Amino acid sequence: MHVPFNLASDLDAALQSAAVAAGLADAAAFAPEVRTAEARHGDFQANGVLGYAKARKLNPRATAEKLVAALPATLRDDYNIAIAGPGFINFTLKPAALLTWLRAHATRDTLAAGAASAKKDQTWVVDYSAPNTAKQMHVGHLRSAVIGEAISRLLVFSGARVFRDNHIGDWGTQFGKLIWAYKKALAADPSALHATLAREPLEEFERLYKVGNSAADADPAVLDTARAELVKLQAGDAENLGIWKHINTVSLAAFQVIYDQLGIQFDVTLGESFYNDKVDRIYRELTECGLAVESQDALVVFHPEHPRFATQPFIIRKSDGAANYASTDLATILYRAEHFKADAAIYVIDSRQTDHCQQLFLTAQKWFAHRGWKLPYLEHAAFGTVTGEDGKPLKTRSGEHIRLKELLAEAETRAFALVSEK
Ligand code: ARG
Q1: How far, in Å, CA of 129 to CA of 143, rounded?
Q2: Is 271's C-beta closer than 6 angstroms to any atom of ligand 1?
Q3: Which one of 24, 232, 295, 379 is at 20 to 30 Å from 80 when CA atoms are compared?
Q4: Quick check: CB of 347 below 6 Å from ligand 1?
Q5: Which amino acid residue places its CA nearest to atom 3 of ligand 1?
Q6: Contacts of 137 (CB under 8 A, 6+ apart)
């Protein structure tokens, strides 16, 4: 017996034939629209009857009844079928039919063969993990990594070509203070600095950042020097670029240890710095499309039709002329569309960035529509924050982030103890 892999499309086809068999008017135009149902309604529901019947001045419930009666007997044996509301048809698989399906698709190979057609020939970018460099990964970074990897594997399983893209934050304002502190430590005691950097490089850069940060807080002159270091870096100063590269190399090596532990391998790591020379085109594009306007020296995008984004600006160039998270993310969408020919991009970022994603996607929609380009399907796969018992983002007792490295090590030790005990 042939058991269809995709039950929803099987039902869809059966309802379409039923429309013909029942002699419904204009049957060829009937689209059953079978979708996965909310659990309380059953397994699948056909939503298309209502619209079809209304447009032809038919009674939707009577139409639904005719359709159900015209379904093949085998289907009526396999499902509990109920007509709900004004004309929805709900389908719930009977246990025996479910068991038959599970038996027919019980192995990885049969499942893969069935699923592989779903996203065949499609290119998906999965944007996940994406920590900022110069800092160690902490507990808050775990979920994006795990969820993003799970989504990637499901997409591969469904036949898609997947680019796992680690959009690291490697071009932030943190580098001004960090470079200032690095140079100061180097001047004070070069051999001590080199020794610590050789032993635990990322920990040392993290410590240096804190030194730079509190010094800049305490002394405006330090803040100015740190800003000047950042400007030099952005202008391509060789020494500062060298330090910056070193920091990123060290950071990526530390991230890689964790990715190896989690079984994650990125296809590309194109962080914010990669898009640095691509933002000018963004300013030009959005200005030409009439989307971006100057406001208090910054370049911003408003969305007049939106309840919040009509007044809450999407800043794409800061008032000091610098690029930011929004400009690089817009350049990223363009690059993914042009370079990867992406059909879709999934952003696995926590829900605190929901506004950013909505403004980003809305801006891209209008921009691409204006140009007549095909915009990849964009989705924010949002997740919540890992919190402690106080409901605040989880920290150690001393108020520090829990390092992912230590968390994973502890999980391993505890799991080992548990298994050994058994
Ligand atoms: N680096 C960012 C952060 O730590 C996440 C980047 C997510 N990806 C993106 N395309 N915006 O918050």
Answers
A1: 8
A2: no
A3: 24
A4: yes
A5: 131
A6: 131, 254, 255, 258, 403, 404, 405
Best substitution site from 135, 167, 401 to test ligand 1's pocket, by max atoms within 8 Å of Cβ? 167
Q: Which of 408, 404, 405, 126 is nearest to 266 (CA)?
A: 126
Q: Is the pLDDT of residue 398 over 90?
A: no
Q: Is the CB of 169 under 6 A from ligand 1?
A: yes
Q: Could you tell me which residues are beta bridge partners of residue 185?
A: none
What integer pLDDT is reported at residue 405 of this predicted model?
93
Instruction: Return the SS3 of 126.
Output: strand
**Greater model confidence, 257 or 387:** 257
Q: Supply 392's token pair.
A: 């605040």
Residue 397: what pLDDT? 76
C-alpha–C-alpha distance, residues 170 and 130, integer Å? 10
Share of the chain above pLDDT 70, in %: 100
Cβ count within 10 A of residue 10: 16
What's the token pair of residue 40?
């309380």
Which atom of ligand 1 is nearest the CA belonging to 360?
11
pLDDT digits (tens, 9 = 90+) for 197-211: 999 999 999 999 999
pLDDT given for residue 1 in this prediction: 55
Rounded Cα distance between 140 and 357, Å, is 19
- pLDDT tops 60 at residue 288: yes
Whether 346 is in the pocket of ligand 1, judged by its Cβ within 6 Å, is no
Residue 354 Cα, ligand 1 centroid: separation in angstroms?
12
Percent of the chain surpassing pLDDT 90: 87
Distance 331 CA to ligand 1 centre (A): 14
- The residue-averaged pLDDT of 50-68 equals 95
Q: Is ligand 1 within 6 A of the CB of residue 204? A: no
Pocket lining: 329 vs ligand 1, CB cutoff 6 Å:
yes
pLDDT digits (tens, 9 = 90+) for 111-165: 888 888 778 899 999 999 999 999 999 999 999 999 999 999 999 999 999 999 9
Q: Are strands 88-93 and 123-127 parallel, antiparallel or unpaired?
A: unpaired
**What DSSP string runs through 29-97?**
G----EEEPPGGG-SEEE-HHHHHHHHTT--HHHHHHHHHHTS-HHHHHHEEEEEETTTEEEEEE-HHH
